[in-house]
Amino acid sequence: MAERRRVLATSEGTSSHFGAIEWGLLAVTSITWGSSYLWIALGLESFGPGLIAWLRMAFGATTLALITRQTVAIDRRDWGVITLIAVVGNAGPALLFALAEQTLESSVVGMLTAAVPLATLVVALLLGNRSLRPIHAAGLILGLIGVVMLSVDNVVGAAAGVTGIVYTMLAVFGYAVTANVIGPVVQRYGAVAVILRAQLISVLLLTPSGFFALSDSTFSWRSFIAVAILGVLGTGMARSVQAALVARAGAPRSSVVGYLVPVVAAILGVAFLSETMSAAELGGLAVISVGAFLGTRKVRPTRQG
User: How many other C-beta atoms are found inside a 10 Å radius of the C-beta of residue 88?
Assistant: First the structure.
């Protein structure tokens, strides 16, 4: 009898221990995604949101196509999940974040995405993931508190457009769904194979919006290079790295990247833009660090009998 499996399923990960490999994958993703909102803002100086979304997917897919040499056959039962990932995890957020930054500052958008870990936890529980322990939940909640400490002054003081917030929250939900459903297919086919196919689908889906955005766009090397970096690193490489992390550590633990992205953004601001950090922000960094540590602690197997 052929194996039957759920169309949508989450994964607890293949590794109960969050070790050096997992921390390395987490660091690469956090650093890359922490700068993504800056690249989007630079892209918007010359390009429309639809064109930015299409270009970043095209750059990402091209990068992955060039680095892979394997031909992987995808079971027809898994194409539905890969298409879902393309819609809610790639094409949707790519367009929504660009639209959001038309009314919100890039730093504010980055801070709002800190809701991803808790959203991921909710979706994981709905899909039947029971690997999360109380210490992990405490870490996720503590991380959220740290992000609030880090970002409250920036969010409250910003000219926050309601539409931009809605766009960002829709993208957050898409990321949460993707983080949960991507693990099983990545475990079967590998991160690059899954992300490449999802991004190729996204390129097709975003072609109309990219075409119509041409009339509202002008060319500049500054914007083009920014979107190229965004596509190659943030959309192509980092998404594959994050997918590999989800497959190894499971969705809830790997989602702590959402707490580290604002940290990276803040550090880059101090290092390269001469920004300053308040005592509350420094305290937020410390709280996030503790939350990330607790949220990635080793899962001890439950004793049977």
Answer: 19
